[in-house]
Amino acid sequence: MFKQIASKVHEVRPLIHCITNYVSANDCANVLLACGASPIMADDVHEVEEITASAQALVLNLGTPNESKFISMLKAGQKANNLGIPVIFDPVGIGASQFRKDLAKTLLKEVSFSVIRGNASEITTLATWQNHSSCIDTNALKRSSYDMLIELAKNLSEKLGSIIVISGEEDIISSPHITYRVFHGHPAMSTITGTGCMLTSLIGAYCGANPTQLLQATLAATLAMGLSGEQAYSKLCQIQGGTGSMHILLIDAISLLDFSKVEGGLNYELYEKLS
Ligand SMILES: Nc1ncnc2c1ncn2[C@@H]1O[C@H](COP(=O)(O)OP(=O)(O)O)[C@@H](O)[C@H]1O
Ligand SMILES: Cc1ncsc1CCOP(=O)(O)O
Ligand SMILES: [Mg+2]
């Protein structure tokens, strides 16, 4: 199934419209090319609706926000919603300023997101804005922090109607009723900037090419990123490279990934609550 989802990206070559930050924009464009998609970064208000209309997915990334980029995000997001194009949101550094929080709150109100991907701190910040009693299960607080994050992802997904991805040492992918845990990746991935943004773009590509299977596409993209991180790190050790090489090796690995050739199999599971 994952092989089929990934192959579809190469077949369809979906155009992915990214309104994103200037730190990782180039990496995201290269990751999209590496997985078989076609990137377009465009954020001027005069063209975003037209570009979104010709795209198969829209990625909104809050990494370097400003007022005019925000207006563009709103317009592009609403256009995508009207046309049924999946919209993916990356709330980068959402806890860092009141400005980012206000922008994200408005986006969540005005745009319907197919997928929201962030690290644990970003998604926890989003969850605290929702109704506490339904979002944070107090029994879950007593269990391990991953159990707690899983409950939080599930509840947030139900509340917002979006697939929630919490990335990190373990990745959580949750719809309201189905939750997966992915155990791939490597700590070296967080020694370079933009790996989260790259994962969000990859999710955009996989969803854009597989719009009727958004949960499976999101899971496949998350597995693809984790596996690529592992393969990049293993090559990095062979060449005794540093973080600059890790950056390049990661993009290499995404372009070379073949799900049918994954040694050791895929390490993920459907989460089932024990209590
Ligand atoms: N300690 C880790 N072990 C394994 N994979 C990791 C680790 N930290 C990050 N990753 C991987 O790096 C990618 C980016 O995740 P993350 O670092 O959470 O995003 P962000 O850059 O937005 O904070 C994901 O594919 C995630 O699985
Ligand atoms: C460092 C930085 N500053 C603004 S956006 C950005 C990149 C963040 O990328 P990621 O969340 O993927 O590490
Ligand atoms: Mg991030």
Secondary-structure blueprint:
Layout: H1 2-12, E1 15-19, H2 25-34, E2 38-41, H3 48-53, E3 57-61, H4 67-83, E4 87-90, H5 98-110, E5 115-119, H6 120-129, H7 132-135, H8 138-142, H9 145-160, E6 163-167, E7 171-174, E8 179-182, H10 195-209, H11 214-239, H12 243-256, E9 268-270
Magnesium ion binds at residues 92, 119, 196-197.
Task: Give a structural overview.
InterPro entries: Hyethyz_kinase (IPR000417), Ribokinase-like (IPR029056). ATP binds at residues 117, 167. Pathway: Cofactor biosynthesis; thiamine diphosphate biosynthesis; 4-methyl-5-(2-phosphoethyl)-thiazole from 5-(2-hydroxyethyl)-4-methylthiazole: step 1/1. This protein is α/β, with parallel strands linked by helices. The chain has a single domain (2-270), classed as Ribokinase (UDP-N-acetylmuramoyl-L-alanine:D-glutamate ligase, 3-Layer(aba) Sandwich). Helix content is 53%, strand content 14%. The chain contains twelve helices and nine strands. A nine-stranded mixed β-sheet has the order 2-1-3-4-5-6-7-8-9, sandwiched between helices. The model is unreliable at 132-139 (pLDDT under 50). Bound molecules: adenosine-5'-diphosphate, 4-methyl-5-hydroxyethylthiazole phosphate and magnesium ion (MG).
